[in-house]
Amino acid sequence: MTASRTRKKPPSSDKKSPAPIFEGAEWDYEKVDNCFQAIQKIAIDEMGLNVYPTQIEIITSEQMLDAYSSVGMPLMYNHWSFGKSFLRDESNYQKGFSGLAYEIVINSNPCICYIMEENSMTMQTLVMAHAAFGHNHFFKNNHLFKQWTDANAILDYLQFAKNYIAKCEERYGQKEVEKILDSAHALRDQGIDKFTRRQKLDVAALRQRELERQEYEQSQYSELWRTLPETTSKDEGEIDLIEKALAQKLGLPESNLLYFLEKHSPVLENWQREILRIVRSMAQYFYPQRQTKMMNEGCACFVHYHIMNRLFDTGQITEGAMLEFIDFHSRVIAQPDFDSQYYAGINPYALGFAMMKDIERICENPTDEDREWFPDFAGNGQAIKTLKEAWENFRDESFILQYLSPHLMREFRLFNLNDDKSKPFYLVNAIHNKQGYIAIRSALAAQYSVANLDLDIQVTNVDLHGNRAMILTHNITNGVTLDEKQINLVIPHIQRLWGYDVSVKSIEPNIDKTHFA
Amino acid sequence: MMHIIDRRLNPKGKSLSNRQRFIDRAKTQIKKAVNEAIANRKISNTDGGERIKIPSEGLYEPRFMGDSEKGTHDRVMPGNKDFMPGDKIKRPPSKGQGQGGRDASEGGEGEDGFHFTLTRDEFLDIFFENMALPDFIKKSIKEEVTHEYTRAGYKRQGSPSNLNLKLTMRNSLARRLCLRRPRDEEIAELEEKITALRQQKKHTIKEQNKMIALLEELEVKKRRRKVVPYIDPLDVRYTSFTEIEKPNTHAVMFCLMDVSGSMGETHKELAKRFFMLLHLFLVRQYTKVDVIFIRHTHLASEVDEETFFHSRETGGTIVSTALDVMQKVIKDRYPPEDWNIYAAQASDGDNLNSDNAHCQHLLTQNILPMCQYFAYVEVWDSHEAEMFPGDNNATRLWQAYEELKLSHQNFALKKVTRPEDIFPVLHDLFAKNKKSEVA
């Protein structure tokens, strides 16, 4: 990637060129504060970003490791798996296998940015521009985040979750709670509502509901109920009708397994249901992040790049700082070729940043090809406005479908490789030429689509009048079957939560295969 | 619109409880790994933590996953060099290109190894779990009790050196405030007013009345100051100390090692490893244990730790010399009525034939009655062990000692042939339930 940029105002021509905000690598609060003000001026006044108030938190590398292990959240309930990831991260870090992030940013209001004390002042500036304005703007404006997450409530909710689980441990024992969490974690990927709207995470209401549940149960409890005789059996047709009505009532088929188990499991206690709810709320919270990773990073990189250049243009940072920044920036957005030993898929920072810069280029300096492909905004001269619309209304998949230009496909030299595991060879489907642009664009978009990220597994049937067996149906996409080893490991967890037999059925037009566990 | 918060001073170890949970969960695997680690490494570097690898059994977090070996994947990749549409590229053998991610769970039967570093404390905790010095009934009746003073609140009487100024002054201030003791400034102010009035040449009646009132007020205040003293005996507090009894924890461990010529490198290495572990265990679990190192050839001497473990010497073998030295040290410095005495002896079992009986005699008559516990470890070369399996080919010394075992419950003996044996032997000798086992 090129790190140079056409400057409208070279620094020498600036009439008043104020003293730089900082020199050298050391940072202190005053410098950080002054820098923040300067960045804010550019971000809000010039770019018109719309952000949550920011809370910068300075942490040590050890605390960064802590934050890693609790999936980046400032608060998290206790579970051994977080200890496991902590030990692994710590081990990798100490051995030098992996470095640490320079920042972590949390989608909350106020937006919390962790920055590390080891960072140089240049890095702190960059990190603030990147996280406190780039990511922050994206969190506040992107439609997925608006729809699925509630930045105002998340910190309260985390606090509630942590306390609730700690209380459960106190009351029912660490082992019991751990069992439920283990099982719920195994179904984390199947604990997401993809179609309905989110529910508000209102802590006060949660407590209220929990209380009411308990009170209701206590008021309804009567020893006499246990002595009622068994209901008499019904004939086949009647059962069929009842089954149908039941399926409707249960909302089958249901793709949110955790939701289904929370609502309908015959064996779970109230506190166990609440734990399932906590796990699934967390999974839901991260759902938009998975779908917008590339865009989110692209947005943040574009914003930091723009701001750093503006700071330099106006003489607010030194050439030394600028060089340090460019060096870092070009490493972050590097994209190794597919045959390089460093290749690990497409770098979301690289593609994201390149696409944002490309849109800027198309807005300001389009070619004929761009005008043909993007008549809506080519040459409109309003790059930031165009970008802001994109950041608001798209996710990775649709963003690529809409905005990936032939120019960029050539620059990345993208090609589409068809990998059919049943054939002894790979097939090159399309390359970066006129015939291939559309195919590559759709293939790349599909790579980011929910259908490719997530498996389609649903609860399709529960035999409530018979043996209560639950049947899960996996709809095979692209011929990818489920990993049998994993099935055998996950099924016991579902059985624990459901209490009865569970089996998984994979459905494909030509193969119909059922795994019984 | 921005806050900066410095979190660096926040309490550390936010992940500590998660880490603890993880270690609890992986206890059995970790224990196994720790034992393996101890067998393989040099004991002398026990100061650092230990990096161990445990199988991920029970630690794996399963989730539904697609089988990456099946189906079709339409991939888009960057950096095309010379591919043209329609090119067919031969699939490289076994693994799919760029899709390595799954080998971890794939390799072996879930033997997905997990590396991490235990801190030294965690490591040793697990390592020495369930070990203790056997605590047989002390033969001597005389239980020495030591006394120690600890802080115990405050009291009203005491020696001036223990006066607690802070509390005394606090009480005094409270009392003075309650009883409205006039402050110095109030009196000074009144006196000032009076002198000011006095200095006037002429006094009106009003002023004269005021003068009288002021003098009266001064009188009252001065009297009040006398009645309410600055510091009253009531206020005084002394820091209190109380004497607590501490049971006698005096313990001494004698380490007797044979370094004679018959001990080959392997023997010495084994013996040293045994003592290093023993030493580590004592230092860790018992802060106040004295350790005495004695090594012997045909001569024995008490040496320091450094010499014991690291210097070389050679010569003939007379085991009883070491026992003599031990006896002498006990006599000089560790009277058995005040001390709990433990001993561990390591040898290859080679001894001057005539000396065996002497050893037996020394132990039965003098040493064993004074000792809480005496452990004998015989080190064998692994080749020797293969050549002479079973206990029939025991050395003379072993035979002599074995007789002792029958008559003395505070005596134990074990054989070590490989480094891996050391830990189990040590564990056997110092298992926590030793008492019930032997008694």
Number of domains of chain B: 3
Instruction: Decide which structural class fits the backbone of chain A.
Output: alpha/beta
Report the radius of gyration of chain B as a whole number of Å: 39 Å
Q: Low-confidence stretches of chain B at least 5 residues in length (pLDDT < 50)?
A: 95-111, 434-439
Total number of beta strands of chain A: 9
Largest pleated sheet of chain B: 6 strands, mixed
CATH class of the largest domain in chain B: Alpha Beta
Contiguous helical run count of chain B: 15
Structural class of chain B: alpha/beta
Question: What overall form of chain B do the CA principal axes indicate?
Answer: flat
What is the radius of gyration of chain A computed over CA atoms, rounded to a whole number of angstroms?
27 Å
Compute the average pLDDT of chain B.
76
Proportion of residues in extended strands of chain B: 15-25%
What's the story with the biggest beta sheet of chain A? Answer: 4 strands, mixed
Would you count the extended β strands of chain B for me? 13
The assigned CATH architecture of the largest domain in chain B is 3-Layer(aba) Sandwich
If strands are numbered along the chain, what order do they take across the biggest sheet of chain B?
Answer: 10-9-8-11-12-13
**Termini gap of chain B:** 74 Å
Mean pLDDT of chain A: 83
**What share of the residues of chain B lie within helices?**
40-55%
Low-confidence parts of chain A lasting 5 or more residues at pLDDT below 50?
1-16, 511-517
